[in-house]
Amino acid sequence: MVKHDATAKEKCASLDMPRHAASESDLLDDDGRKKRTGSVWTASAHIITAVIGSGVLSLAWAIAQLGWILGPFMMLLFSFFTYYTSILLSACYRNNDPINGKRNYTYMDAIQSNLGGFQVMLCGLVQYINLWGVAVGYTIASAVSLEEMYKSMCSHKSVGEDPCKEVNTNMYIIAFGIAQIFLCQIPNIDELWWLSYVAAIMSFTYSTIGVGLGLSKAIENGSIAGSLTGISVGTVTVADKVWRSFQAIGNIAFAYSYSMILIEIQDTIKSPPSEEKTMNKATLISVIVTTIFYMLCGGFGYAAFGDASPGNLLAGYGSFNPFGLLDIANATIVIHLLGAYQVYSQPIFYVVEKEAARRFPNCPFVTKDIKVGIPGVWCFNLNLFRMVWRTAFAVVSTVVAMALPFFNDVVGLLGALGFWPLTVYFPVEMYMVQRKVAKWSSEWMWLQALSLVCLIITIAAAVGSIVGIVNSLQNYKVFSFS
User: Fold this and answer.
1) Which domains does the chain show, CATH number per domain?
2) For 443-472, how does the pLDDT look when each residue is reduced to its tens digit (9 = 90+)?
3) Long-range contacts made by residues 8-14, C-beta under 8 angstroms, separation at least 24?
4) Who has the most CB within 10 Å: 76, 417, 426, 480?
5) Rounded Cα distance, 226 and 414, in Å
């Protein structure tokens, strides 16, 4: 029912009114925008939704490539990098003054305010390609989980004979893409708080199941599998050992990746206290929680399967009983990734729609909202440009996921491409400008050394993942439904 219906219009208007009379200033923030309502907990939910994603499923495989010593060490190292650079980045939400300074609504706005010039274009290119890549990666991961649910049900019905081994992933990729066409119509990230809470609960659920299954499998085996140095040369060639180790580092980097949407999350937080203080608390909570889950899930997975750990941990249990637990885990992964896809995609939606409104301010197709309501239940602002463009985004992401459905390889490449520039380089450079860090001071040298080390790690991880994709493409038929 649309705007022409007077009843729907009145109900929609009534839903937009405050419950109690209030002055306009009470409803607006210092920048004239609608008052932000986010807290430590909503910000933590957004972060956990973004961070504890499909990347957790590849951590047992990553430890299998690196071993019991280097694997957990790299997880701790990346958790430190993520927390430290997130603190630097959150300091750049407001310019100069953490309480009264001008707000930067997006990561790109922060780059523009602090660095400007060519670096704005470079950041935009890297950030939005990476955000879009995450959407593709999450589409692939969801399809894998849907496929595993189907196989599990077939196996159970046939009492282990499993007549459904040949399942085409593309059908599940398309199904996930169709669901995202509808979810993409949610206007902005501030209205995603409910979806983030649901997604965060789902991520805890499947991570906990993964931990429990890994522990059960290790107990069933009667020993802790794996070795100190990971998969050995002989089982794989020297070259494969090197490339797979680099790729494993990229997978770990991807598992901690969320800096590219940190500013957007911070822009949902109410003040006082300052958004920086709240965001730092949310970051600390989130990094500690995710690191504990990663250590448990990756560690118990490797203890269960050793050097044979699968790329997707839940895919390694086959007909392991109770099969229903695996189905629950895979279902929660899909639900979680439905929300995480949106958290990562909203910054892209925002910048495209903002630019379209700037270029075509008098075009009703771009700027006009149509009130759509279910009387007495729900009201929604439908924008035709938003509907068309976001639908196209979901369709293109789905097509690319069908062309490159290699979970581990894509995850490793995304982690490598986004880690150094978005998690380290830009936050470090902006912080030094914001806080006027003197060149050649001890703080300046420490930050530059940190950036250099992370650049080397990123290059190694990217090379390893590209080699993996090239090898996978040799045995894959693009867009096959057979």
Assistant:
1) 6-473 (1.20.1740.10)
2) 999 999 999 988 988 888 888 778 777 777
3) 8/371, 8/372, 8/373, 8/375, 8/379, 9/371, 9/373, 11/373, 11/375, 11/376, 11/379, 12/371, 12/373, 12/379
4) 426
5) 27
